[in-house]
Amino acid sequence: MPQTTLVSIEHTVAVSAPIKDVFERWSRMEEFPSFMEGVRELSWLDDKRFLLKSEASGQVLESVCELTLRIPDQRMAWRTISGPDSSGVVSFQATDAGVTEVTLKMLYDPETGWSDREELERRLALNLGRFKALVEG
Q1: CB within 8 A of 33, min separation 6: which ones?
Q2: Contact, 56 vs 114, CB < 8 A?
Q3: pTM of the model
Q4: What is the pLDDT of residues 58-104, one digit of tens each?
Q5: Looking at beta carbons, which pairs linking 57-63 to residues 24 or more positions away fall under 8 Å?
Q6: Phi and psi, residue 18, nearest 5°
Q7: 1: how many CB neighbours lie within 10 A of its CB?
Q8: Is 3 exposed, middle or buried (0-12, 13-18, 19+ CB in 10 A)?
Q9: Model pLDDT for residues 30-46, shown as the tens digit of each residue
């Protein structure tokens, strides 16, 4: 079986809010559909697993994901259990100026879901910008 190459994308946004507030807001993942383009539904199956329905290139993708790491005010990570192959980590870093840098890094297999890298990178930047506006607003 040929092995596919995972693609990595990353984006950082500076949010003018304390790290505790930023992390707490990100932790409400079931609210992602309200501000993240392409995320249609996110619902918890238990305390570690969630169902994610997203849209990419006109098709609906469904994944069961597992939260693999949760360090309050520092980092959260996930990986797919079923559906399009992806994993990622979001990191939170406080700066001296009272700003929290939020960095999202994601690995994904373009053959199992998101085939358009430019579109996914655009969407990631836009969604983190919307998250910033939500927290600051």
Answers
A1: 39, 40, 41, 42
A2: yes
A3: 0.89
A4: 888 899 999 999 999 999 999 999 988 889 999 999 998 889 999 99
A5: 57/114, 57/115, 57/116, 57/119, 61/113, 61/114
A6: -65, 145
A7: 3
A8: exposed
A9: 999 999 998 999 999 99
| C-alpha span between 85 and 28 (Å, rounded) | 23
Residues 6 or more apart in contact with residue 73 via CB below 8 angstroms: 19, 20, 23, 92
Six-digit token pair at 107?
Answer: 């690995």
E strand or H helix at 83: none
What is the spatial distance between Cα 74 and Cα 20, in angstroms, rounded to a whole number? 9
Lowest mean pLDDT among 2-16, 57-71, 122-136: 2-16
User: How many residues are given for the chain?
Assistant: 137
- Whole-angstrom distance, CA of residue 124 vs CA of residue 135: 17
pLDDT for res 120: 83
Q: Give the torsion through C-alpha atoms of 2, 59, 89, 11, to 10 deg.
A: 110
Distance CA 89, CA 86 (A): 11
